[in-house]
Specification:
single chain, mainly beta, 3 helices
Length: about 1100
């Protein structure tokens, strides 16, 4: 029999009432045992109290309920003594338009809403109780609803349910079914519209179904999920901290019921456990990152009913990643589903999202779950909607998530009206074909990343392809960009595209961003005239590409845009393009400072190339893999050599770098034995990791210049590196060269340390400054840090080359030989200083017609026992009276010094005229020859010419001395200002002076090494001097500086300390600082007083 014996049900059973009567809360039905504990439900068989005495408090059963309009419910009031309210109470409702109540507590539902029904003691109005009644309508199309959306109970528990019926079904019987039947039994009440479900003893899941049939035979059915979970384990099975976080499980049960009160399931709380099911109580608010990561879990159930609404709002990153769940239904309260929450789940087939999920990156939650075919969304969700298992924005404008296992190897048509494919929407999708609507305007970042589609055709009005939108898709072969305006970074990176139509007919594409088509396989690419920007690496790493065309609007080509496209044979530019041009397979760009060489095709067959005059920059990777090149001449005025500019030029053995270059990052991995830079360097970088580095590096000088190299070169460390004045920072983050020459301007040196010194042990370091100087100390400290013995540190002085022999003497232009043509002469060549050992000599004859003849190539010289000098003789027979001998000497640093031997009385013809071309000025003699690598007096002025025959300007080093040539090229003497500093060039010789200089009784100090005039205080060997600001003249006598007076000894200029007598008065200069004292001061234990002028008064 039905367990609850109420008057209402009895009346219905007797037919006294025509309305449906409900005896349990419709929206919050709970187990009968639970109702008793909460004092909201009496036991299943009510025993009337024998006493009729009111109590001190009152309660109403049920405390809350749900009805459909037209249904009734009998409420019962009871005192705490057990006495029924009966005639002791009065009844009323808060809103009679929603529900009415009679004197016996019979509630009649009138219209939708929520109403309070109040029972009040007649004798004491302060004693009252309330029941909340929620009224909801049921449509005729639906016909029937249940008071619960789902039931989850432990074994042997009961749940009171009722069927809510539409008007046409009121009073009709209801048939109840449990499937599978092993989950529980149903006992029905009057008219079978109410029921008690009692769960079985075994956990499981299924459905509870209720069916109503109209008088005319029409049937309506409703089903809700039914889950029987295992009874709670002992609390000892769980590790729960004071904050309610479940951090671990140590039980053995495979069906786990998490205790009520747990607020968070912590990271990997069930790590290593084999579980059949987990029941999560409503108290849980958070599933932490990796909460069920890798769990061998078959089922998870969240408590979430009207009586116990789930508090879970956040599902953390990778919360279920790598678990074995097949289906997941999230509670209604969940708002945020974090990245990868349901990713890498090989068995997951379906997910249901509740009404509150609003995560902005929802697609990231389902990455790489290959069997996922459906994601359903609650219809009440204001952010998202589900269309056939695919998630869209509520307005259907954006496709948000396409389950990766849906329509595997098949196709999908995105519906018209969709304007955006969202971030990661089709990522790793297994379908092979997708049809995009004409309404589509954007494919967002990662939208089709690693999916299996084979072709893409974008509509004509399309606008933007997002970053990595079609990233890493080897099956993608054909792309039609339609009306695309912008292709973003790495959009088609590493896809298998072989056919690429950028739609020049539509002419809408303007921007191709960095790496957009990197690692694709198209053989021919034509850019529309509308394209203005091509980013870095845009079309790089395409071994199949053979032809490439730039349209009329292209402004530039990003670095490495065609990098590693080593089979590219045809490069063309629209004739209408005003910024870019191609000259014999070399692409140039106009820039504000001149021209920028962007690319030389790697298939170019030329062995020599002269970069066009006016070019100021070589772009990164510009000549990469030009393996045919053996010689490249860079133009005067070039300032920048970009990263990797000559990478892979394995046969390049001659590179002429002009003195104008300031920045270089690209002379690496070539065939060069020696790379030489000029004197204006600001920055050089050589990333030698697994690349070939030049054996000898020469940097003549810099302007606060720096040098940096790192990584183990494929050919080992360099043999030598020379750094001239102006270079301040040198870093070898790899093995240091065997010979390292450093300037006096050095401020910072880094030498990588190797175990026990490694191959650095034999490195010899030379510093162009005296022992104890700042540069010396910097080098010494770096060597110590690198484990290089101090005995390997030396003072560097430039190599001096001298000639001697019968009839040989010095001349202004070098040396002269008193001999006639045809007479052999033995010339002894001596070299001193420089670096120890490894000296070689080369002899070249300079003929009157300007031609040269190498008489002896580089030949080792005989080294002295102390390795500080070397000598070698050469026998020369002048062929005519105008022949000259040019002798070159180099040491292990590869720095070359040279001098000239001229037959006496037959010096080179002096009649000639100045000539110029794009590279500079040179002097042509009347016989057609020109001076090369020598010093020549023309019109009473001294000029120097480089090895290329061009006149040199600025600083020139020769025979260990520095000379300065002004803009006209003429050698300067006397004072000259350069780069903000003053220098003194000795009249007569023109050599730059260093150290102390006496001019007409005034002394100046020129810094050793740099020659720059010093001003202000100067410390030499512990003695201080003061050089006047501005003039640099050494001061003597009294000098005021910074508010203090000092006394510089007349004659020597040395700063005095201690007691000094001047013009009959005594003064005291503070030991150490030299500042004159005033006032009272204690000296040698006695007090002395000095006036404000410093005069001692006693």
């Amino acid at each position: 029999m039905f367990p609850r014996k109420s008057s209402t049900l009895a009346l219905v059973a007797a037919g006294a009432l025509s309305l449906t009567t409900v005896s349990v809360p419709a929206a919050h039905a709970i187990g009968v045992d639970a109702m008793v504990q909460s004092h909201t439900v009496q036991s299943t068989e009510i025993v009337r109290p024998t006493r009729d005495v009111p109590g001190a408090s009152l309660s109403v059963w049920p405390g809350d309920a749900a009805l459909a309009p037209g249904q009734t419910l009998m409420l019962e009031a009871t005192y705490d003594t057990g006495t029924p309210g009966g005639s002791h109470v009065t009844w009323k409702t808060s809103d009679s338009s929603l529900a009415t109540v009679d004197d016996n507590g019979l509630v009649t539902a009138v219209g939708p809403g929520e109403v309070a029904v109040i029972a009040t003691d007649k004798q004491d109005s302060s004693i009252e109780a309330v029941s909340w009644i929620r009224i909801r309508s049921v449509s005729e199309d639906t016909g029937i609803e249940l008071s619960e959306s789902g039931v989850t109970r432990t074994p042997g528990k009961s749940v009171f349910l009722n069927a809510l019926l539409s008007p046409s079904f009121l009073g009709r019987p209801v048939e109840w079914t449990v499937s599978p039947a092993t989950l529980g039994t149903v006992e029905t009440g009057p008219n079978e519209q109410t029921a008690i479900l009692t769960t079985s003893d075994q956990p499981g899941s299924g459905t509870l179904t209720a069916t109503v049939t109209s008088q005319g035979g029409q049937k309506k059915t409703v089903s809700i999920p039914l889950t029987v979970v295992a009874a709670p384990q002992s609390s000892d099975d769980f590790i729960i901290n004071d904050s309610g976080v479940l951090t671990g499980y140590r039980g053995s049960a495979t069906d786990v019921v998490i205790p009520d009160g747990v607020t968070e399931i912590g990271r990997r709380a069930f790590d290593g456990h084999e579980l059949d099911s987990v029941w999560v109580p409503a108290s849980v608010q958070t599933l932490a990152e990796e909460a069920f990561y890798g769990a061998n879990l078959k089922k998870i159930t969240f408590q979430d009913d009207d009586e116990h609404p789930s508090q879970l709002t956040w599902v953390g990153s990778q919360a279920f990643a790598y678990s074995t769940l097949e289906t997941v239904s999230l509670p209604r309260a969940v708002k945020d589903v974090d990245n990868y929450a349901f990713s890498y789940m090989d068995y997951l087939t379906s997910v249901r999202l509740g009404p509150n999920v609003s995560s902005t990156r929802l697609s990231d939650a389902f990455v790489r779950s290959p069997r996922l075919t459906s994601i359903e969304v609650d219809e009440a969700n204001a952010t998202y909607a589900s269309v056939d298992g695919v998630v869209y924005s509520k307005d259907r404008a954006t496709l948000v998530v396409f389950p990766s296992g849906k329509n595997a190897t098949g196709s999908y048509a995105v519906p018209e009206g969709t304007t955006t494919i969202g971030v990661g929407a089709f990522a790793v999708a297994q379908l092979e074909s997708v049809t995009l609507p004409d309404s589509l305007r954007e494919v967002a970042s990662r939208a089709f990343e690693q999916s299996s589609i084979t072709a893409v055709a974008l509509p004509d009005a399309f606008e933007t392809v997002g970053e990595r939108a079609f990233w890493y898709m080897p099956q993608l072969k054909r792309v039609d960009l339609g009306g695309t305006v912008k292709v973003s970074d790495s959009a088609f990176y590493s896809s298998g595209v072989t056919e690429m139509n950028l739609r020049p007919d539509l002419n809408r594409l303007t921007e191709i961003a960095d790496g957009a088509f990197n690692w694709t396989s198209a053989t021919s690419i034509t850019l529309p005239d509308s394209v203005t920007t091509i980013g870095k690496e845009a079309f790089a790493n395409n071994a199949a590409l053979t032809t490439f065309h730039l349209g009329a609007s292209a402004q530039s080509l990003g670095d490495f845009a065609l990098g590693e496209d080593n089979n590219l044979t045809e490069l063309s530019v629209s004739p209408s393009n005003t910024e870019l041009s191609v000259e014999i397979g070399v692409l140039y760009q106009k820039i504000s400072s001149g021209r920028r060489l962007l690319l030389s095709l790697p298939t170019n067959s030329a062995t020599e190339y002269k970069v066009t005059s006016g070019t100021t920059e070589i772009a990164p990777w510009a000549f990469a893999h030009n393996t045919a090149l053996r010689r490249v001449v860079l133009p005067k005025g070039l300032t920048t050599i970009g990263y990797g500019a000559f990478d892979g030029c394995s046969n390049l053995i001659d590179l002429s770098i002009p003195n104008s270059v300031r920045v270089s990052e690209g002379v690496i991995n070539t065939g060069l034995d020696t790379v030489e830079y000029g004197t204006k360097i600001r920055s050089i970088e050589m990333n030698a990791r697994d690349a070939r580095i030049a054996r000898h590096i020469i940097v003549r000088g810099g302007v606060e210049g720096s040098f940096y190299t790192e990584g183990a070169a494929s050919n080992g460390r360099p043999e030598s590196a020379f750094f001239g004045e102006g270079m301040t920072k040198i870093e070898f983050m790899t093995q240091a060269p065997r010979i390292l020459v450093l300037p006096s301007s050095l401020k910072e040196l880094v030498l990588e340390r190797f175990p026990e010194g490694g191959t650095n042990k034999d490195t010899d370091v030379y510093v162009a400054a005296s022992q104890g100087s700042d540069a010396w100390e910097v080098a010494s400290a770096a060597m110590k840090d690198a484990g290089i013995d101090a005995s390997h540190l030396h003072v560097y002085k430039p190599t001096r080359v001298t000639l001697s022999g019968q009839g040989i003497g010095e001349s202004r232009d070098g040396y002269k030989l008193s001999a006639s043509a045809g007479t052999p002469a033995t010339v002894k060549v001596s070299a001193e200083a420089g670096v120890s050992g490894g000296r070689e000599m080369r002899v070249v004859q300079m003929n009157a017609d300007g031609s040269r003849k190498v008489l002896q190539n580089w030949t080792a010289m005989s080294t002295s026992s102390d390795a500080l000098s070397a000598a070698l003789s050469y026998t020369w027979t002048p062929t005519d009276g105008q022949a000259r001998l040019r002798i070159y000497v180099r040491d292990g640093s590869r720095i070359v010094r040279a001098t000239t031997l001229t037959v006496d009385g037959t010096s080179a013809p002096r009649n000639g005229k100045w000539m110029s071309d794009s590279r500079g000025w040179w002097y042509r003699y009347s016989d057609g020859s020109y001076p090369v690598g020598e010093r020549v007096t023309i019109g009473g002025q001294v000029y120097r010419f480089g090895a290329d025959g061009y006149m040199r300007v600025g600083w020139v080093s020769e025979q260990g001395a520095w000379f300065f040539h002004g803009g006209s090229g003429a050698e300067v003497s006397g004072w000259v200002k350069d780069g903000g500093s003053w220098y003194y060039l000795t009249p007569g010789s023109g050599a730059m002076a260093t150290g102390w200089l006496d001019l007409g009784g005034t002394w100046y100090y020129l810094a050793p090494g740099s020659g720059a005039m010093v001003t202000g205080w100067l410390d030499l060997g512990g003695t201080w001097y003061y050089l006047a600001s501005g003039s640099g003249a050494m001061a003597t006598g009294w000098v005021k500086d910074g508010g203090s007076w000092y006394y510089l000894t007349p004659g020597s200029g040395a700063m005095a300390t201690g007691w000094v007598q001047d013009r009959g008065s005594w003064y005291y200069l503070t030991p150490g600082s030299g500042a004159m004292v005033t006032g009272w001061i204690r000296i040698d234990g006695q007090w002395h007083h000095f006036t404000a002028s410093g005069r001692w008064v006693g």
